[in-house]
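Bench notes, bay 3.
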Amino acid sequence: MKVKLDIKFNEAQKEKIVKALEAGSSLAADTPKRKKKRPKKNAKALPGTFAWYGIVYLMLIPDFRKHGYALAIHGSCQRDLDLIAVPWVKGKVTHPDTVILDIMKRYKLMMCGKPENKPHGRKAFALDTGAGTFVDISFMPIRRK
């Protein structure tokens, strides 16, 4: 699938994207000094961040689909990209831990803290892209018959 994007980034964002791509990663440069803390609750998104989140979302869809999940954006996306993964296929759906490990390895992401159990059986993971942005992924529980 070829996607044409006409997006305006500021210079700092362009540099981060170029470094990430040059490092061989689609999302993040391999930098040893990554922040493991999530942004503050009142943090505001920088101009161009929503476009970056759109790119990340489009890149992740096939990865989640192969594991049996539908992926959707939710939340304000002010301080991070909020995603929800919903078990979607009738057959085998991969355990969330396995999906996250696969995503982290493929895109060279780092986990921020430990996974959290959320209301209604959700399991949430926070990932650092290394480009100054964060991705929160919340998995709905898998129902077994």
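Next record in the batch:
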Amino acid sequence: MTGPLTISLSFQAGPRHMSHHNWDISTLTLQLRTARKQWREARKRDPLTTGREFPSLTALQEISRSISAAPFPMRLGPEDLNPESEDHYIGYTLGRALDKLLEQARLELTLSGPSDTASVDKKATELIKAFASRLPELRTILDSDAEAAFRGDPAARSVDEVLLCYPGIRASSITAWPTPCSPLDFRCWPVSSPK
């Protein structure tokens, strides 16, 4: 390679994406780029030099799904998971999720105010380690919540049904996880189960 890699994006409707409407995507894309550029210039923000400044909602949703599934691997993990590989799945899933959460924590802490990179890294690492250490306790709390919901609902057929199908328990399994990160208080942590 002799120069920087340039990627050209082309939006063309193929057979799978045929539309009977002319949405004029090229013009809309250009207009949105112009609006972004004007906003960034007015605020002296250049993403080419500063990179991503805010945590990613998409990343936090993925992290939330992974962290919710790891404690309940045979219920919320992948369909092809078997009991012999549970520990491997949990280790791999949590390792990736916590690494990604650390990246998002760094962004969130950087938003909180000016600080040097070493301080941000240290604080983010401390917060994520404290969070991770509470996962077994949170698993126990969610088990208790699911059991209580099962006992309180005569129509429930099993605790597994409660965990998998009851919106309140599913929401708890998503929103309970960031509690130990409250000093971090992600502004865009997903508060409902992502689709």
